[in-house]
Amino acid sequence: MTQEEMKKVLEIGVMLSAERDPLRLLDRILGSVMDLAHCDAGTLYTLEDRALRFRIMRTDSRGVHTGADGVLPDIPPVPLDKRNICAFSFLERKTVNIPDVYECADYDFAGPKEYDRMTGYRTCSMLAVPMADRKGNGIGVIQLINAMDADGNVRAFRDDMVLVLESVASQAAITIQNVRYMNDIKGLFDSFVKVMSSAIDERTPYNANHSRRMAECGAAFIDHLNAIAEEAGGSARFTAEQKEEFVMSVWLHDVGKLVTPLEVMNKASRLLPEQSLEIRHRMREILLTGLAEKEAGRITEGQYEDLKGRTEAAAQLIRKADTAGFVTDDMLEKLNELAAEIYTDIDGNTQPWLTPDELAMLSIRKGTLSESERAVMEEHVKVTDRLLSQIRFSPELSHVRQWAASHHEFLDGSGYPRHIRGGEIPYEVRIITILDIFDALVADDRPYKPGLPVVKALGILTSMAEKEGKLDPVLTRQFIDSRCWEAAGYAGLDAKG
Predict the structure, then answer these.
(1) 3-state SS, residue 447
(2) 154 sits in which H/E element
(3) DSSP per-residue codes, 300-326
């Protein structure tokens, strides 16, 4: 073994320890081993469904290189039959070194010979090296073809190289196993995050699929931003790892709602259920008292009919204000007039038609939550931060907690919970905020309002960005241009705008 070959072995070890992409790892393993063995062709097989599947194939003299792009070679997998050299090597955990396949009758070389017949290639020397994990479980096989001497002539694989290649294959197998473990753990964590996020959405029918829609919309928007950067001649704005970190933040942005009371999350109207019931009882009591007054001759039939009409109008006003998207000045004036009305109950006590608490609830201008209820709802962001602080995120996901817990902050400092502003708000958080507001505007599953048409929702986003200074105006325009919501499964958006 030459000094140069020893150097290559060391370089392969460094390469294997650094590579984390599974596909690129397999391609680099085969390329490195072929270079070390000075051979023309090679195939890397991995065990899948009790067969050896072609993953990477190279024949340098023919310019063939398949599998490196993620598209598997269109070749049937090799069954675990010892008549096939790669299968024998895998099953027996033995390296097989054959000087010339045309002079060997121990294995079935019908495949290579048929390839030679069709292409004019000449398969001669072949080396099959098994790959096994730490426990001796087979992972796959590296099969090399046609070792070359310094002059480019085909020769047998050198015996002194076999041990080196076995060592490299063993190291490669352990690296493949480690990468698979890491990807399995990552996949498990990703699945757990999505399950937890789905559980939050499923707590209430009014929040179903919120995080999923945001994640899909956000991923499409990131792709759009990358395309803009690349079209301008630069590199992508987000790497694959950064995109993954961003999407993870979106999935977890509402994790604090796990502890938000359902009576607040599900509040579809301004009045509490007990308040609505009390008002209905009160209106009936007012009518019954009026009827008793009429029967006693203390009021006329016309006065009773007037009272009846007033209670019906009051009930209609209360129902309208209770569920209105916005309480207008006119409605507010009528509610105050109604609250000033009094009646005498059956015990002879003077009572208002609307109590101060009921008036306060019905006077909520926008949405259905009172100040105290809104404070409870806004607490979910702080809870998100506390819950995520208990997760040991990897360095690649180190910003997830911060981004997820900041999605209600506005550039003008009017957001919550920390009221940070301007440059204090990360670029990624600005995107999540736009996604969250857009979903809240167009979604049909919110208790306090119907979904808006897309055109109107985009108009609100534009106003918040360019007039109110709450959102990033550049990102808002890019979001509108991207039309990324079309990839996010929003139901009925075509019909609405």
Answers:
(1) coil
(2) strand 154-155
(3) -HHHHHHHHHHHHHHHHHHHHHHH-SB
Domain boundaries, the chain: 3-181, 203-263+372-496, 273-367
3-181 shares its CATH topology with 203-263+372-496 = no
Q: Measured between alpha carbons, how far is 156 from 99 in angstroms, rounded to an integer?
A: 5
Question: pTM to 2 decimals?
Answer: 0.70
DSSP 59: E
* CATH architecture entry for 203-263+372-496: Orthogonal Bundle (1.10)
Query: What does each of the 497 residues of the chain score in pLDDT, given as a tens digit?
Result: 566 656 666 566 666 666 667 777 788 888 888 988 899 999 999 999 899 999 889 999 999 999 888 787 788 899 999 989 999 999 999 999 999 999 998 888 888 888 888 888 999 999 999 988 888 889 999 999 999 998 999 999 988 888 888 887 887 788 777 777 777 777 888 888 888 877 777 777 666 688 889 999 999 999 999 999 999 999 999 999 999 999 999 999 999 988 899 888 888 899 999 999 999 999 999 999 999 989 999 999 999 999 999 999 999 999 999 999 889 999 999 999 999 999 988 888 999 999 999 999 999 998 899 999 999 999 999 999 999 999 998 888 999 999 999 999 999 999 999 999 999 999 999 999 999 999 989 987 665 567 789 999 999 999 999 999 999 999 999 999 999 998 876 644 543 44
